[in-house]
Design brief:
Length: 135
């Protein structure tokens, strides 16, 4: 037996409403948004394929978390299923500034040997976001 994938990561935010709006502009689905808004659950998540990003909103104290987790501490790499130009257009259409790239990067596929290019941006909490485009 071995570890085969990542189920979820957790990310704190300083402004949950702003974060929801940002990730929705990028086309992500927000899990448990209405239950969080109504106070039924203490947190919500962003769906990413078969994985998710659990968001710890302002004042979140329930459950386990890293003792030094603060907004802006996360660095996430998404895989884009399309061309570099399509990814650039999606980010620009969402009003997201590309801060670096496209440039060659070593991703996870093929033990880092599969050719790829990356684009970088930041979310409202200043988390670093990367979109990896494999060729």
């Amino acid at each position: 037996m071995s570890t085969v994938s990542i189920d979820h990561i957790a990310m704190p935010t300083a402004n949950a409403e702003r974060l929801i709006e940002f990730y929705k502009r990028l086309g992500f689905h927000i899990n448990d948004e209405e239950a969080w808004r109504s106070g039924e659950v203490p947190a919500f998540s962003i769906q990413v394929g078969d994985s998710k990003i659990n968001i710890h909103p302002e004042g979140f104290v329930a459950g386990l978390r890293g003792p030094t987790a603060v907004p802006g501490c996360t660095d996430i790499c998404f895989v884009w299923d399309g061309t570099v130009e399509e990814c650039q257009a999606m980010l620009e259409d969402a009003g997201v500034e590309i801060i670096a790239g496209p440039g060659p990067r070593k991703g996870a596929r093929g033990g880092g040997g599969h050719p790829s290019l990356s684009l970088y941006a930041r979310d409202p909490d200043q988390n670093l976001l990367e979109w990896m485009i494999y060729s």
